Amino acid sequence: MIDDDPGVRESVAGNLKDSGFDVVAFEGGPSALAWFARGETADLILLDMRMPGLDGFQVLERLRSRGVNSPVVFLTAISDDLTEDRALAGGAIDFVDKSRKLSILVKRLQLALEPGAKSTFGLAAKPVGNGPLKIDHLELFVDTCRAAWRDQPLDLTLSEFHVVQLIALRRGADVSYREIYDCVRGKDFVAGQGPHGYRGNVRALIKRVRKKFRAVDDLADPIENYPGYGYRWIVADA
Fold it and tell me: What CATH number has the domain bearing residue 170?
């Protein structure tokens, strides 16, 4: 964990240790980079975005340039499309807002640490050799949680990847708002106002995903809404 705020370091690191994680905390990029330069390794790096001296983007860039390929999750209070795109281009796989509850952070880190986990919904496609899962024009690189559309990389966050995987692997079938939200937040997590408040979160997530598909293909629209229920993956014509 890399964060310049001693209060955040103490709180988050302590809570993660209590949740079963083995945590090494650093007050900034230079000390973390020096640690890795000594040959140390990490299964995952939790990285603050705003830090004096070297900010999170610079730390991420230097880690990658030095061959440190551990998955990076940003723990940040900054969340917008431009920031997300920049971080994903640099090699981050997800973002967790600092205002989120510990249980959310733990769930997201667990997902990041298990990128090759099998889908619990069954496969609707098979890997080609040792390559990605191919579903219509979509390729899912399950081991690295990356995706491509018509051979163009899709800049999906870890949560977005898992949602696309969920819907695409059940192509032609309807996937409910609740199933999609459970995929992101964990089963039966409560959010929003009223018993169906989470649907707004799902709609916002799908809107971001659609935008990312269209960023690489103006005509890409593989996710169809089933009003009042959820979404489905549209099977491409042969």
Answer: 1.10.10.10
- 88 located within any domain: yes
Please report the pLDDT score of residue 123 as a whole number. Answer: 34
Q: Are 168 and 140 in contact (CB under 8 A)?
A: yes
How many domains, in total, are found in the chain? 2
Distance CA(108)–CA(104), nearest Å, equals 6
Kindly report, residue by residue over 148-190, the tens digit of the pLDDT.
999 999 999 888 998 998 898 888 788 899 889 888 776 655 5
211 by DSSP, 3-state: which? helix
> Where does a domain end: 51, 79, 113?
113
Task: For the chain, give the percent of residues with pLDDT over 90.
Answer: 34
In a domain, 28, yes or no: yes
Contacts of 76 (CB under 8 A, 6+ apart): 48, 49, 50, 56, 95, 96, 97, 98
Report the candidate in 1, 92, 111 with the shortest Cα–Cα distance to residue 46: 1
Task: Say if residue 89 is in the same domain as residue 158.
Answer: no
Q: Output the six-digit token pair for 90.
A: 């640099």
Whether the per-residue pLDDT at 82 is higher than 80: the answer is no
Is 153 part of any domain? yes
Among 139, 167, 166, smallest CA distance to 232 is for 167
The token pair that represents 76 in the structure block: 């940040």
**How confident is residue 24, by pLDDT bands cut at 50, 70 and 90?**
very high
- Give residue 104's identity as a one-letter amino acid code: I
Give the domain extent around 91. 6-113
Domain-ending residue, one of 78, 113, 148 = 113
Contacts of residue 25, Cβ cutoff 8 Å, sequence gap at least 6:
1, 2, 3, 9, 13
